[in-house]
Write a structure and sequence with these properties.
alpha+beta; two-stranded antiparallel ribbon; 4 helices; 4 strands; 19% strand
Length: 130
């Protein structure tokens, strides 16, 4: 586990940045960043132990750190599952063309929000692969 600085950017409907805020991001899947900014280092046991210790420290006197860790894991995992189901429903309701165009726009927006924008052509290729 390590801490780094990340930024949240809010854009209006034309894509213009209206606000930004830095925050401390906690990365649980490594001990440090490699030269490309990817998490690296640590055994599974070390990383899990650090995550449990972090959540136990955050829980304080309640001592429900493991439960808090599992709640966060459940929440994050469920978001991914919901997104897949939502995309399938949109394809069925709106028709495949509209759903594909929305998925492309969403993918481009998500990448831009992460600071790694992609062109429409790259987004289209990625979406069509899935």
């Amino acid at each position: 586990m390590y801490k780094t600085t990340a930024k949240v950017t809010v854009k209006d409907n034309q894509g213009k940045v209206v606000a930004t805020q830095e925050y401390t991001k906690i990365v649980f899947e490594g001990l440090s960043e490699d030269d490309k900014g990817k998490p690296t280092g640590g055994t599974d046991e070390e990383l899990l132990g650090q995550a449990v210790a972090y959540f136990e420290a955050e829980a304080g006197k309640d001592q429900r750190g493991v439960i808090d860790l599992l709640k966060e894991l459940t929440y994050g995992y469920d978001l991914g599952v919901k997104a897949t189901v939502r995309q399938q429903l949109m394809r069925a309701v709106a028709g495949p063309d509209k759903a594909i165009e929305k998925a492309i726009k969403d993918y481009m927006a998500a990448r831009a929000a992460m600071g790694k924008p992609v062109s429409e052509e790259i987004a289209r290729k990625k979406i069509m692969e899935d």
